[in-house]
Structures are given as C-alpha cells and as structure tokens.
Specification:
Layout lengths: L3 H14 L7 H19 L2 E2 L6 E2 L11 E4 L15 E4 L4 E4 L5 E5 L4 E5 L8 E4 L2 H4 L1 E9 L11 E2 L8 E2 L5 E4 L2 E3 L10 E4 L21 E4 L1 H4 L8 E9 L2
Parallel strand pairs: 1-6, 2-3
Antiparallel strand pairs: 3-4, 4-5, 6-7, 7-8, 9-16, 10-15, 11-16, 12-13, 12-16, 14-15
C-alpha cells in the first residue's frame, strides 16, 4: 500500500463485489488493515524538507529557502526540463533535487504529501498522506435527508447536515438508504456533489485546489440520479479524514 488510492481501490472493489450494498464490517476491517500498512510504509520513507506548493512556473520574487515541487505540466523559464524535481531558491539561483525512489515531501499548501517512485512513471510524484505529521481516520457520517422531489432543480441541497471532518484528497462515498451514488469530482453532472458556495461550484475530491472541505454541504441532482429523496431518509458519507 503506497498511496491512499490503493486504499480506495480496495474499497471500490469491495463495494463492486457487494453490488449496491452499504459497506460491510469485513470491508471496513480490510480498509483499516490497508491503512495500517500504508502508515508503516510512509513512516519509513526518506522525508525531504517541505515545499510550498506544486507549480510549473518559477515565482517572480522568491525568498531565500523557498522550495517548490515542479510539475504537473511542462515547466517553464529557469525550471525548463526539471519536471518532477524539487527547486530551492538560495538567494541567487535555483538549486534542484532529483526525485529518487522512496523519497517523500510534504506540501505546505494543503498539509498533504507526495512520494516518488520511478517504477510508476519517470519523474512522477504520487499523492500520499503525511500520516506521521497529521494522522488520518476513516470517518463515516450519518445524516438525515431533506425532501428532494424528482422534479426539483439539479443542485438542490440534500440535508442541513454538513461534513464534520476534514477530508483528505481522495474518494468520498455517498450512500442513500444503503445504495451508493456517484459523487462529482469537481463537476456538477454526477448524482451529487459537495460545495462550499451554496451549490454554485462543485468541489474536487482529487488535486491541489478547490477540494472538498470541512463544512461542505451535499447537493443532489434528481435528473442525473433518477430518484427523489424522501425527508428522513438516511444518508451515509464515508471518507478518510485528517486528524486535526
């Protein structure tokens, strides 16, 4: 287990095997075991000093010791040809560190981290949780649904409940009365999506910006899901959350 995606792949495979059933105790136990393996893996990693953020463009006025992870597209300027390297400003020029297998670096902008493994793709860093610094927990929230009619507009808020944990970048699973529905990853065209601006923008589950966050509400798309929601139905939200 190198990344949280491995953990979520395990969840997804288990849900598929169980059809549309809610997650069983066996699945949760398997996920917890995977999380334990994952935590042990990263605790043994070669941790580098943290970086401010991921970008492909050198900042115009860096401060001494500012560090950046270069990606995810073709770098420009002084960073041309340095994709996947760590850049540090020494006051006069950029100094670069090549990624090597089992190297980890923390991202200050969202408290996540990345690891390098050339066996996946050359000069590619994969997202991974800095569990040693922030910790993680599998969180399952239980909400009470508001009524949403099949003819109501898409983007109708589904409950007055909201996320009480800080989700880590990765899959968030939504179940209504034990049936799983698709969550939009930065798009409003799935069965439902999370938003922090009254449903105007769908927040992302993956990436570095506009991520689902503590306090987000869930919005329902009746025309996409094909169902309305009866007031009082049970909504379950399952995700990995940072311990903060």
């Amino acid at each position: 287990m190198n990344t949280l995606q491995d953990v979520f792949n395990l969840i997804d495979a288990s849900v598929t095997q169980n059809g549309t059933q809610a997650i069983t105790g066996d699945v949760l136990n398997a996920v917890l075991r995977a999380m334990a393996q994952f935590s042990e893996k990263i605790a043994q990693g070669d941790w580098q000093d943290s970086v401010k953020l991921i970008t492909a463009t050198p900042p115009a006025n860096p401060s001494v010791s500012d560090r950046y992870l270069i990606g995810n597209i073709a770098p420009s300027g002084a960073w041309a040809g340095k994709l996947g390297q760590i850049a540090e400003w020494d006051g006069a020029a950029w100094q670069f560190t090549l990624g090597v297998n089992n190297m980890y670096v923390r991202l200050d902008s969202n408290k996540s981290a990345y690891y390098y493994n050339g066996a996946y793709q050359s000069n590619t860093w994969k997202w991974v949780l800095d569990a040693a610094a922030s910790g993680m927990q599998l969180k399952a929230e239980s909400w009470t649904a508001d009524g949403v009619l099949i003819g109501d507009p898409d983007g109708t808020i589904i409950s007055q409940d909201y996320l009480t944990g800080q989700p880590l970048p990765g899959a968030i699973m939504v179940f209504v009365n034990g049936v799983q529905y698709m969550v939009g990853d930065g798009v409003k065209t799935a069965d439902c999506y999370f938003s922090s601006d009254d449903g105007v923008t769908a927040n992302k589950m993956y990436g570095d910006t506009t991520l689902v966050e503590l306090g987000d509400y869930l919005y329902w798309n009746p025309s996409v899901s094909g169902i309305g929601i009866t007031a009082g139905w049970r909504i379950n939200i399952v995700y990995l959350a940072a311990i903060i």
